[in-house]
Amino acid sequence: MDAAPVTVTITGAGGQIGYALLFRIAAGDMLGPHRPVRLRLLEIPQGVRAAEGAALELQDCAFGLLRDVEVTDDPAVAFAGANRALLVGSRPRAAGQDRADLLAANAGVFGPQGAAIAAHAAADVRVLAVGNPANTNALIAATAAEGVPADRFSALTRLDHDRALGQLASALDVSPSHLRDVTIWGNHSNTQFPDVSHATVDGVPVVDALAQRLGGADAAVAWLDNVFIPRVAGRGAEIIEVRGSSSVASAANAVIAHVRDEARGTHDGWTSAALVSRGEYGVAEGLVCSFPVTSDGSGYRVVEGLDLGERVRAGLAASVAELAAERDAVLALGAL
Ligand code: NAD
Ligand code: LMR
């Protein structure tokens, strides 16, 4: 007998990331090769035609796992019975807008969507915010979703995590699959702190492997400080500069990996995701902060008890200060 279908709602489904995401979900990359899916595509009226076009193409792929696809501009319809909500659609930053304007515009998107999730989604719904500013958008949605436990909400920092793996694999000339226990701390912004202090490559501490390859411990620290951290934290801007628009396929790939590992379990160490803080590592409760996380298939949990050195603590504190400022800006708007 077939497994029960999972209803996946994707907002902004007519956009770039949506187009890169839908076909991989329908192919089983996210929830596995035995899990049928129903797709609910939410768009604003201007985006509905693009989402309808994607729906036609999904039909043309004749995916064995795809039960049905519905396109709508009504959040109540889109989130009805949703087991998974991928909040991709957001207001892009317009010319002349500052961060506060962007937060205000997105509060008007993620607040009502959080409320619609609480009113219409399945009891087991899990929500991932992708649209930027992702951490604070997740906070807005979680706050508006009265009755839905806070630990059902996360924001995407898996792309930053995978970017860090890519940079380390290249520097060490190994496959990324040999690396374990890298962490992205903080916000999905350039204040994030990519941390290799617990990371290993084939069981050897990454810092030792870098020292061996780069000619000593000082050279390894210099590479981490001057190349690795700014490269990973600034990669989103680098992609925008080189491509002319923000990352798409790599972002969709990170969404797939985030949900796959959350639903099917992490293996081989931890990954990174932004979760609603319960005070772990001194991060103020309620902020949506990236942590090292694992899942046994029932949801992400923060890996606790790691010894953070002074540099990691300072990097985390700086990024958490930015998250707190974003929360305060949204609070001042009355959106929390
Ligand atoms: P896009 O502009 O191509 O698509 C966004 C879509 O969202 C559009 O089709 C738009 O009509 C739709 N939309 C806007 N408001 C909506 C609403 N209220 N309800 C439903 N749909 C709505 O953008 P994209 O390239 O797909 O990127 C989407 C978001 O993801 C952006 O905010 C981008 O900055 C962010 N992003 C995040 C990460 C991450 O790692 N967290 C990485 C890359 C991009
Ligand atoms: C990314 O990390 O690629 C994006 O979040 C950048 C952006 O601002 O869209």
From TrEMBL:
It comes from the Bacteria. The active site is at 188 (proton acceptor). Pfam families: Ldh_1_C, Ldh_1_N. It catalyses: (S)-malate + NAD(+) = oxaloacetate + NADH + H(+). PROSITE patterns: MDH (PS00068). Its EC number is 1.1.1.37. Substrate binds at residues 93, 99, 132, 163. Keywords: NAD, Oxidoreductase, Tricarboxylic acid cycle. Residues 7-146 form the Lactate/malate dehydrogenase N-terminal domain. GO terms for molecular function: L-malate dehydrogenase (NAD+) activity. NAD(+) binds at residues 12-18, 106, 113, 130-132. Catalyzes the reversible oxidation of malate to oxaloacetate. Belongs to the LDH/MDH superfamily. MDH type 2 family. This is Malate dehydrogenase. The lineage of its organism: Bacteria, Bacillati, Actinomycetota, Actinomycetes, Micrococcales.
